[in-house]
Design goal:
25% strand, single chain, globular, 9-stranded mixed beta sheet, 293 residues, alpha/beta
């Protein structure tokens, strides 16, 4: 039985929604409380049993490589000051084998995945997108890996979204359902408003078989003039089963400003160090707002 031990994390986007902050800092390094967003993604992969990760980067992303490397000067300083809790946090990101490759042109998600084809070889693999953070008892990716182990077929993670938001996502057209797992008729990338076949949206987690590269090799452009991963998945679905799995857990959209702020607040309220003071502050702001209105 084939197992999933490799993962691709695309991180080559320009992060224009967060300018000017992302002019010099990769959007993947923007902190949520005290960790950059990409570290949440890497930790999910590690907790799911992934052994090798390749991050697809672009120009100006060197900070990502530095973050996941050892920093001997900093670690030695923390050791001497006996700040062992901080030392462990600093060393945590370097505890997995991470590799890097450049996406030399911004040709879309499908092209970013294609760039990692030689690293993947003929193995099934995971893809985790950095705009989606999932808080779940069982890591989201691990849920998908369990589905792959049952079916030995590609699986994409989905959740329901409001009908008016379906045009923002890749959407699945389901046929039969077994528990939380769907067989799929079609995968549609960002359907026009009012034309979506369902409200089951692809949420940035995939387990794919290597045959996907047969279709990504064609470099066909789709929505937005980019090479879309969803289009290649639709072709793959005609060759072999690709399932959709409605994963358990709360998904946060950190790819846009409001979602990023909401994620920061939620995770800060789970942080023992600051949650009580933050809660008191938020309560005060609500009371002040009610008084003003």
């Amino acid at each position: 039985m084939k197992t999933v031990k490799k993962a691709i994390i695309p991180a080559a986007g320009l992060g224009t929604r967060f300018l000017p902050a992302t002019k010099a800092m990769p959007k993947e390094m923007l902190p949520i409380v005290d960790k950059p967003t990409i570290q949440y993604i890497v930790e999910e992969a590690m907790a799911s049993g992934i052994e090798d990760i390749i991050i697809v980067t672009g120009k100006g992303k060197r900070a990502i490589e530095d973050h996941f490397d050892n920093n001997f000067e900093l670690e030695d300083n923390l050791m001497k000051k006996e700040k062992f809790d901080l030392l462990e946090k600093v060393k945590q990101p370097s505890k997995v084998d991470i590799h890097y490759i450049r996406q030399k042109e911004p040709k879309g998600l499908g092209h970013a995945v294609w760039c990692a084809r030689k690293f993947i070889g003929d193995e099934p693999f995971a893809v985790l997108l950095g705009d989606d953070i999932v808080q779940a008892e069982t890591p989201c990716l691990k849920q998908l890996i369990q589905q792959f182990e049952e079916t030995q077929s590609s699986v994409v993670g989905v959740q329901q979204v409001p009908a008016e938001e379906t045009h923002r996502y890749g959407i699945v057209d389901p046929s039969t359902v077994e528990g939380r797992r769907y067989q799929v008729n079609h995968f549609v990338e960002k359907p026009k408003q009012g034309t979506a076949p369902s409200n089951l949206a692809i949420m940035g987690r995939y387990i794919l078989t290597p045959e996907i590269f047969e279709f990504l090799d064609k470099q066909e452009t789709g929505a937005g003039g980019e090479i879309q991963l969803t289009d290649a998945i639709q072709y793959l679905n005609q060759l072999q089963n690709v399932f959709a799995y409605d994963f358990e857990g709360k998904r946060y959209d950190v790819g846009e400003k409001l979602g990023f702020v909401m994620t920061t607040l939620d995770l800060a309220l789970e942080n023992e160090e600051i949650r009580d003071e933050l809660y008191a502050y938020l309560k005060q702001k609500v009371e002040e707002s009610a008084t003003m209105s």
